Amino acid sequence: MSILNYFFIGAGFTFIVDLLLNTDYIQNHPKSINTTWGMKERIICILIWPLSILIFLISFIKSFFK
Known about the structure:
Elements: H1 3-21, H2 24-27, H3 39-47, H4 49-64
């Protein structure tokens, strides 16, 4: 995998996370009231997307089976 592919996959994953964070259901959640999703967070997510996907999937599975 080249470095460009790594960044494109990270940008795609960050785009999906950004879309999910802008939904009304998540924006009105009590735990996400004072959180921000700025450029710094987006760049970090693009750089460490494999870890971000792992954390996202674990949290999604835990909340899905509650």
